[in-house]
Design brief:
This protein is of the alpha+beta class. It is built from 8 helices and 4 strands. Strands 2-1-3-4 form a 4-stranded mixed sheet, with helices on one face. The N and C termini lie far apart (35 Å).
Length: 212
């Protein structure tokens, strides 16, 4: 399998960390977003027509895109690792959480970093950034509440949803939000940093999450 990622971006971390955890033999190919490589015809035509990362090329040559799908595929392909629930309700809850991160939490952050996607009038950009930052902080607080009394997102068991959740803690730190005030979320972050695969990827990417 081949993973198409942009390593400096935390968006790649959750998929790469899961592949490392599973000890999957894979190739990683850099798609440099800063150089617009995701918009090149060879990437749009041969990998992901949406021009996004990560993407996963399967052993049969097929392509899988979208974080929730890739994480679910990797976890279910290696069931012995127990990275997703096997019961129907548990699986639905895992997908619900990851979909929430993808469909609600991520877009709030995008308003902060890329307001031009939502308004062509530059006069509106400052308001979009401020509103996005407020909304993103509220969502991080909501995640903190969801983690109350839990070791991991789904309870006692580490799962594919945890690395994905860690990404947004890092993004909050990146834009100066007081994420350290989020007791449960910070405890999850500290717990995940003790996991060799997660720590290995973060060290390789020189993540600010490793700073005290």
């Amino acid at each position: 399998m081949k993973l198409y990622v942009f390593p400096p971006s935390p968006r790649a971390m959750k998929v790469v960390a899961l592949a490392e955890h599973l000890q999957i033999e894979h190739e990683t190919q850099l798609v440099d977003l800063t150089k617009g490589e995701q918009t090149k015809p060879e990437y749009l035509g041969g990998v992901n027509p949406r021009g996004k990362v990560p993407a996963l090329r399967l052993e049969d040559g097929g392509i899988l895109t979208e974080n929730v799908a890739i994480l679910t595929y990797l976890a279910r392909t290696f069931p012995a690792a127990n990275l997703l629930p096997t019961d129907t309700l548990g699986m639905a809850r895992a997908l619900s959480h990851m979909a929430y991160l993808s469909n609600t939490v991520h877009p709030a952050f995008t308003h902060v970093m890329r307001p031009g996607r939502f308004a062509t009038d530059e006069k509106a950009h400052d308001n979009l950034k401020a509103t996005g930052k407020d909304n993103f902080w509220k969502l991080l607080q909501e995640i903190d509440g969801l983690l109350a009394g839990k070791d991991y997102v789904l309870g006692k068991q580490y799962s594919a949803a945890d690395g994905y959740t860690l990404v947004f803690y890092g993004w909050g730190k990146r834009i100066g939000l007081p994420v350290e005030q989020l007791k449960n979320y910070t405890a999850l972050k500290d717990r995940l940093l003790q996991r060799p695969a997660v720590k290995k990827v973060l060290e390789r990417e020189q993540s600010p999450l490793l700073q005290s």
